[in-house]
Amino acid sequence: MNSGSLVFSQIVDIIDRKQFHRCVSKYPMPRASRSFSARDQFLCMLFAQLTYRESLRDIEACLRSQAQLLYAMGIRGAVSRSNLAYVNEKRDWRAFFELAGVLTRKARRLYSQERYIEEIDQAVYALDASIVDLCMSLFPWAKFRRSKSAVKIHAVIDLAGPIPAFIAVTEGKIHDVNALDWIAFEAGAFYVMDRGYLDFGRLFRIDSARAYFVIRAKSNMSFYVKESRTVDKSTGLRADQTVRLNGARTKGLYGSNLRRISYVDAQTGKTLVFLTNNFDLEAAVVAKLYKARWQIELFFKWIKQNLRIKSFYGTSENAVKTQIWIAVCAYLMVAILNKTTGLDENLSRILQVVSVNIFSKDPIHQLFMKDDTRNIEIDNSNQLMFNDF
């Protein structure tokens, strides 16, 4: 990254200009704003994500206060609330969805050598969804409940990172399990899910794609045991069985054998029952795989705490999805920055340091190399002591 460039510009340099324009050109505006380009929009909204801006007025005020630096930031258009509101309303959010895809591929290449679970060489993905509550009167299009609106973010993250491999944004009423219809399953990979995704017809699609799943079983599942294997109960395992579904509906949806593993969590004392179509892994590793699903909960917690996706700068569907996808781009750019600069830092700390140094011209890696003076003993030899009186 170029020394002498603003920290903001060093981050933006992660994105290739040609790739950016290729993404934007796929979805041209019916009536483009001549004074405010797609790049201007993205840079202003990225600035808002990186510096925790509260509103369009806040974005406008902060950027106008640094008007002499806008050109160095790459912003060529006139920064105003009306321009931002117009482009967020009119420019298709899918342009930034495409950009997030470009960044995802770049981030996954950088993190591809990392392994979250040592016993597994294949890719491991965790699936889940998270609700973002909205006001019914302001967001009537985001249907959820009678008195409440919401959008739902469906995500699949690669645990080597964790980097989102798939994200979809829908109305809140869309059930989590529908995400299984939108995913192209990778042969040999593991997909770890909570029992909200338990649909045997869809699980059979994963099995047909020669991928593996690990999922919580429901207590009312109807099955019979074909084979039982001995387990070491000191590890928390209680059963490792080959089972077959015999429910009136389910046996026709999944006609192959399933592996059923019962496990007692030592921390909570709760008994968990898992289903998987993999018969080669040790039962303890399957339990470990499911425990790794917690990483996607941490992912949702991170983006909600560190990025602007719980309150929005516009109320239309396009404005909301634009903001969410640019937030996803910001997350991916911070993750890429962590690797390309060799920081090996917590992503939250990177974002915190960047946010207060956004207009600095120091190379980013130097921001994390400055001496920490908190524990340095201060020489007080010239100060008067109370007992000197």
Automatic annotation (TrEMBL):
Q: Please give the Pfam families that the UniProt record associates with this protein.
A: DDE_Tnp_1 (PF01609), DUF4372 (PF14294)
GO: which molecular function terms? DNA binding; transposase activity
GO BP terms, alphabetized: DNA transposition
User: Where is each Transposase IS4-like domain found?
Assistant: 123-333
Give the keywords, sorted. Answer: DNA recombination, DNA-binding, Transposition
Task: Identify the domain of life.
Answer: Bacteria
- Where would one find the signal peptide in this protein? none
Q: Which residues form the DUF4372 domain?
A: 4-76
Q: Which NCBIfam families match?
A: transpos_IS4_1
The record's similarity note reads:
Belongs to the transposase 11 family.
This chain belongs to the protein called: IS4 family transposase
Look up and give the organism this protein is from.
Pelagicoccus enzymogenes
